[in-house]
Amino acid sequence: MHFVLVHGWGFHAGIWADVVGHLGDVDTTLVDLGFVSGGPKGDAEWPEDAIAVGHSLGLLWLLMRGEGRYRALISIQGFDRFCPHVAPSRVASLKRGLERDPGGTLQAFWRTCGAAGFALPEALNVAKLDEGLDWLMHWDAREAKERLGCPVLALGARDDAIVTPAMTEAIWQETGIVWSPDGGHVLPLRHPRWCARHVLEFANSLPS
């Protein structure tokens, strides 16, 4: 069993450390999108039969850039497009904040997520973070999601202030959603054992 895990905007692949620890004896590939330094080294290659797990923007990235290289897909607080579920003006405001005060902007974002102090200001790659905000504003993977043809699991948190329950339901209601009562926007950090349990249960239910 092989998992490929992709983190969201404003984080690095280290967000998966405790989840991977709870997955046990499985193979994993971590993809790092370059937003924040200090995490484990990422890789862009993984086997075609991997089970893909995306957190937040990481799920959108898998739909847009993963080229279907997975036999099942797991969304952890993910989405097939960010805007207009979230007003583009909010993302534009983040872009302005990133230009004016990168450290302060990310600290405020991490607090909203429930991961205050995730990294130091010098760890930020401002150009990559800005590019990621462009993805949030413009990427639309609804057609890619509809074409998937593979099993999908969606996990969400009832107190997520970034990808709200209403947004999660609008995107994944046909799939069915497994809810955590809390966890903010960082279920992999706040509830890694819970995430790993549902990931493994889903993976073990897949046809061999």
What's the short story on this structure?
The protein has 208 residues and is of the alpha/beta class.
Sum up the structure in keywords:
208 residues, alpha/beta, Rossmann fold, 6-stranded parallel β-sheet, globular
Describe the structure.
The structure is a single chain. The chain is an alpha/beta fold and about 210 residues long. It has a domain of about 140 residues: Rossmann fold (3-Layer(aba) Sandwich), CATH 3.40.50. The chain is about 40% helix and about 15% strand. Strands 2-1-3-4-5-6 form a six-stranded parallel β-sheet, with helices on both faces. Helix 1 crosses helix 9, helix 3 crosses helix 4 and helix 3 packs antiparallel against helix 5. The longest helix has 14 residues. The protein is globular, with a radius of gyration of 16 Å. The mean pLDDT is about 95.
Strand proportion: 5-15%
> Please, how many helices?
9
Largest sheet: 6 strands, parallel
Return Rg in Å: 16 Å
Please state the average pLDDT score: 97
Low-confidence stretches: none
Distance between the termini: 10 Å
Superfamily at the CATH H level of the domain at 2-81 and 141-205?
Alpha/Beta hydrolase fold, catalytic domain
Q: Enter the CATH topology name of the domain at 2-81 and 141-205.
A: Rossmann fold
- Spatially, the strands of the biggest sheet line up as 2-1-3-4-5-6
Order of helices and strands: EHEEHEHHHHEHEHH
Looking at the overall shape, the CATH architecture of the domain at 2-81 and 141-205 is: 3-Layer(aba) Sandwich
Number of strands: 6
Structural class: alpha/beta
CATH class of the domain at 2-81 and 141-205: Alpha Beta
Any idea what the shape is? Answer: globular
